[in-house]
Amino acid sequence: MKRQKIVTFGELLLRFSKPNQLRLTQGDMFTSKYGGSEANVAVSLATLGEDVTYITRLPDTPVGHAGAQCLAQLGVDISQVLYGGQRIGTYYFEPAAGMRAAKVVYDRANSAYYDLKPGMIPWHEILKDADIFQVSGITAAISQQAADATFEALDIAEELGLTISFDINYRKNLWKYGADPRQTLQRMLARCDMMFGDAIEFEWISEHKQPPFTATDSNFEMQMDEYGEWFDELHAQYPRCRHWLMGMRNMVASNHHTLTALLWTEGKLLKAPIMDITDVVDPVGVGDAFMGAFLHAINVFPGNRQRQLEYSLAAAALKNTIPGDFNLSTDDEIRSVIDHRYNANTLYKTIE
Predict the structure, then answer these.
(1) How many CB atoms lie within 10 A of CB 92?
(2) Mean pLDDT of the chain
(3) Model's pTM, two decimal places?
(4) What is the rounded distance in angstroms from the CA atom of residue 315 to the CA atom of residue 296?
(5) By the 8 A CB rule, do 56 and 113 touch?
(6) 268-271 and 13-17 as β-strands: parallel, antiparallel, unpaired?
């Protein structure tokens, strides 16, 4: 396999949670892990053997350097990380339990990334030999100056002829600086070659009601004709985007999820099998695992769109079995999910 050079760009975060599914208001101890959408994609790609460089801005402090070193230990190139600013962005995660929904509290104002400005990152040098530039809607959600820096990077990636990969990643609670999130993300979408989002995000950005995904097991029937018409309309509106990837999840219970995905490409709509995951450990970063696996799959399965889709979904399903933001599933594990049609929970127990 010839490795692709992929550059991802976004904010590295420090995630805090209470142990043993305690609420944020309980106990006196936090556990911490590094993460963040584009960092999660970078780790997935590095784990699968791709040449991936992660771009962010971190404080020049032990906490900032520890975050970069965490990525380096997992095979990500951090040589172009920019240091400056006062603090690292954080978020607090309270996992779901029983009928209690998960909760996320962000603390990202005035972080090193929040204060990132155009001109700080040498994009021409970083992107000159790259094949793919991966970015998400979160990069433009933090602050106006970070949004401006995001569009600067998109301008240069487009100028250099890179494939641009975009994850909607709409997070309502992040958009506090006055920009219209839908208009901003639609501007990003108009410039991308492939796009990923969950069904709710697709509905939000297109303002088009989605067919319901209410699967409680793998026997659910998808409304493929209706989805096909929807994707045809989206492609007509955004003709540059050649690959449209939609993930769908139904949370049957806090630890029981069903998961599937669709891929519209070259006028055809493909569907993946429904994964029935009955022992969810950590659902954070599932979409990032999908996106990272897809960027790898287009390299190792050229022209086989169905295999690319199933590989990506299998990686996303496996992420549910791994604590933290990062998907550390190996290529062999992902292929086993596809080839043996295990659900993720069965594979997890088999590997143990």
Answers:
(1) 15
(2) 94
(3) 0.94
(4) 11
(5) yes
(6) unpaired
